Amino acid sequence: MKKITLLLIVITGIVSSASAQLLPTFQFGVKGGVNLSAISTSGSVFNNLNTNNRAGFLGGVWARIGGAGFHFQPEVYYTSKNVTFKNDAGAYDKAEFKSIDVPLLVGTRFGVPALGVRLNTGPLVSFAIDKNQDIHGALVEASDLHYKDQNYAWQFGAGVDIKSISFDLRYELGLSKVDNFADDGHAKINMFNLTVAYRLFGL
């Protein structure tokens, strides 16, 4: 009798765990963090010009819809991306790009509800909202990027969930050139970001 009872408990646990994985869930929260941006350049317009990484910030909201061990995670956040330009003579200037970024990620999660590890990847669309650049002097012609209104990138990342708090580290690979130059050069933004997220509620 004890063996039968124990077997029923084990079977119930397995079924409950499987059901929890298969049933879709919904979570919503806020997030914020820092980024480290770099611009990769090519073409004659960028000759004798180097770019250095600089820190920026981001903040916004996220949602996660999951089931069967996989999830879809759309996000919307405000981003400030900063880059320093420097020429061979040592003169330098700064450029700051402000945008609304929308990643559309798919991923999987390993672990228990209170503690888990996630892997995410997916495209990102960036909508410029401020294209003013703090660039002047000798670097104007070379470093004025004429930032486009809409740009595309691809994100790869991993995260850790600890109860209602999540930590994410991602790499963002620029897919489209962010400038409006013709054939004499182009620039793409690549970026790392580290964020902390808080789950406001889940279903």
TrEMBL record:
It holds the Pfam family OMP_b-brl_2. Residues 25-179 form the Outer membrane protein beta-barrel domain. It comes from Mucilaginibacter polytrichastri. This is Outer membrane protein beta-barrel domain-containing protein. It comes from the Bacteria. Keywords: Signal. Residues 1-20 form the signal peptide.
